[in-house]
Each structure stands twice: as C-alpha cells, then as structure tokens.
C-alpha cells in the first residue's frame, strides 16, 4: 500500500484512472463500483480488498451519491486529501460537462416529431427501470430486517408501504415522510433493544 | 427560482437520501407543485442521466440545465457534490455510534422510506401524460429487461425509444 504518496506522477496517474472510470461508466452504479474496485484493488493496489468492502458499506450510509463518497475514501487512501480531490475532479468534471452538453443538444432537437415519439417510449422505460432500482434499493434493508426475525420484517414492510401511502395521500411532503420514518425506525429499534436485549447484537 | 435556491433544494434532497436516484422524490415534490419544473423535464433529465457517462446521480445536472441553463447545472452539481463528502465525518463518527440502536433504527427507517416514496413518484411521472396499455406494457418490459441484468440500461432505453418512434398510433 502506498499511503500518503503524493508526488506529481501519482497524482497524474490517479486523475487518469478516475477520468477513465468516469467516462466508461454508463448506467448502473454497480458497474462503476466494479470499475473502481478493479482499478484501486486489483491493478494499482491503492487499497486492500477488505478495506474496500468496509468503505463501500460506509458509503451506503453516507447521504448522496455513493460513488462520490467511495471516490473520496479510495482517493484519500491513495494520496491523501489532495488525491481525493484529484479523483473527484477526474470522475465528475468531464462527465458532468458531457451531461450538460447532451442536455443542451437535446433541447435543440426536442420538438422534432421523431424525438417526441422516442420520448413516448422512453417515459415508460424510465419508470420501469426506476421500479427496478426501487426493488434493488429495498433488498438490503429488508434482508437485514429478516435476519432479525419475522416481526422485524413485517415492521420494515409496514414502513416501506406506509411511507409510500403517506406520500400518495398528499398529506405529507417527501421530506416529512422521510424524517418521520427515520424517527419511527429509531424508536422501534430502541424499544426492541430494551425489550429483547439479546437481539441487539446485529450480525452486520 | 434562481441557481442559489436550486442549489439549496438539491442539497437538502441529497442530504436526506442515499444513492443517485434517492433524491428524485424530494425534488419532484419540491419543484412540480410550484411549477418550477415539469414531469416532462424530469423524464428528460433522468433519461439523459442514464445515457451520459458518469454516475446516474448526475441526472440532477441535466435537470438543472433544463430548469436554469448552464448555471442551473453548475448549482445542481455543487448541490450533489457536498453530501457525499460527509463520508469522512461518517467514517469517524460511525465507528463510535454504529451500534447505538437509535442510529441503526433511524438509518433503516430512512432507507425504507426512500424506497417507499419513490414508487408513488414514479407513478406520478407516468400519470402526467395519461396511462394506457401501451405504456404499462413498456413499463413491464423495461422492468423485466433491467431485472435480468443482461442488457445495459442505455440499450433498454434505446429499444423503448425505437418502439415509441415506430408505434405513433398506439402511443399518444
């Protein structure tokens, strides 16, 4: 491991590697995560396999885009905070610029009949892919609830559908629903820890 | 609506969710009722986000552009950039409080709710232009193709776009 090594050459290499990751990653986050892992663990050895797994778990709990958080942790491990900044620049600047550029191009052709037709097909596809993402996002928390017993799973499902229904009813905003669900989860878990202390040890 | 308030809304939405698409719901909830963005713009931005390189979360950069031009996309980029930087603090803090039941429970509740509110928002996106059999079929097809993970997302979107172009009589 080359912790703290931050001469110009390795910073340039970091930038190049993350530029490649940013440009190559289309679609799902899993693809990008795999690309980062291959480069940082297998090819360059900036970070150990174990630490990568630990970092990825931390990133799932950090607000916002997990891949940005992962880039910060891996970049810092490779070359300190400067390394993290370089990696972020490589990952985001070109791809964000291209995203804005593609949007600008799209605005020019949006009114063509064929583009309108394409959008009519793309709208349901976006919704379908979004539903799939929702299922993937639900998998991990539901699985960890299931490990804690059937009532925990029922509670988790109630929170999941309850928050959806609360939003649908129009009586609460998204932010309110999220905060209330977090609070309910915290209270339930505190009570569970009091009543059944033996369950407190969570098998990760 | 100006770039500064766009930045603040994006920042708040990103702070309260994880993953690149976790913020769709809060932003939809903030922008649509106020007339700052349309359902169509959300769909366009989500599509561009999937088709362009970089993390999917950059869809917000596209939304920012559609709402306010280049400054909008810059404001959105800064808004989604800041929350993940907290990972350094999370790393320190988490080793101390990770086994506190309240922390664990809050995060679990929040994560479940992020998924729970996503589904009605997706339904509203679909509803925006009227629901018919053609659309529901495409929803199911895209879901199924995405589920088996054989095809890249860009290919699925392109296929559905082609269907949309070639079937104008069914799609309204």
Keywords summarizing the entry:
heterodimer; A: 204 residues; mainly alpha; 2 domains; 7 helices; 81% helix; 0% strand; flat; disordered N terminus; B: 172 residues; 9 helices; globular
Shape of chain B: globular
Average residue-wise pLDDT of chain A:
85
Which residue ranges of chain A are poorly predicted, with pLDDT under 50 across at least 5 consecutive positions?
1-6, 200-204
Structural class of chain B: mainly alpha
Helix content of chain A: over 70%
Number of strands of chain A: 0
* Ends distance of chain A: 27 Å
Q: What's the order of the H and E elements of chain B?
A: HHHHHHHHH
Distance between the termini of chain B: 31 Å
Describe the overall structure:
The complex is a heterodimer of chains A (204) and B (172). By secondary structure, chain A is mainly α. Helices cover 81% and strands 0% of the residues of chain A. Chain A folds into two domains: 8-109, no CATH class; 113-200, no CATH class. In chain A, helix 1 runs antiparallel to helix 2 and helix 5 (113-147) runs antiparallel to helix 6 (150-168). The model of chain A is unreliable at 1-6 and 200-204 (pLDDT under 50). Chain B is mainly α and 172 residues long. The longest helix of chain B is centred in the middle third of the chain and has 27 residues, at 101-127. Chain B is globular, with a radius of gyration of 18 Å. Chain B has a domain at 3-95. Chain B is built from nine helices and no strands. The chains are: A mainly alpha (204), B mainly alpha (172). At the A-B interface, helix 1, helix 3, helix 4, helix 5 and helix 6 of A face helix 1, helix 2, helix 3, helix 4 and helix 5 of B.
